[in-house]
Amino acid sequence: MATLLPLAAEHITEKEWASLGDHLVANTPKLALFGLVLEDANPAERATLLSALSAPVRDISRVRAA
């Protein structure tokens, strides 16, 4: 099975690759996007992101993640 990045490097430009990220941000519900960011974050990054949220929003994010 092929992996995405080598195929992408052969078939799309850097500008096209960057536009995919822009498209994802513009067309993904913000809560889902935040979940993707949290999933990819290491524990320290996750703690920093969650500490920036207000307490009610942080509580909602914990309930939704469970």
Report the span from N to C terminus: 33 Å
Helix content: over 70%
Give the biggest beta sheet: none
DSSP summary, beta strand count? 0
Tally of DSSP helical segments: 5
Category from helices, strands and their pairing = mainly alpha
Beta content comes to under 5%
Description:
The protein has 5 helices and no strands. 0% of the residues are buried. With 66 residues, the protein is an all-alpha fold. The chain starts with a helix and ends with a helix. The chain is elongated and about 45 Å long. It has one domain.
Task: Record keyword descriptors for this entry.
mainly alpha; 0% strand
What secondary-structure arrangement, pairings included, does this model have?
Elements: H1 4-11, H2 14-27, H3 30-40, H4 43-51, H5 55-65
Describe what is shown at a glance:
This protein has 66 residues and is mostly helical.
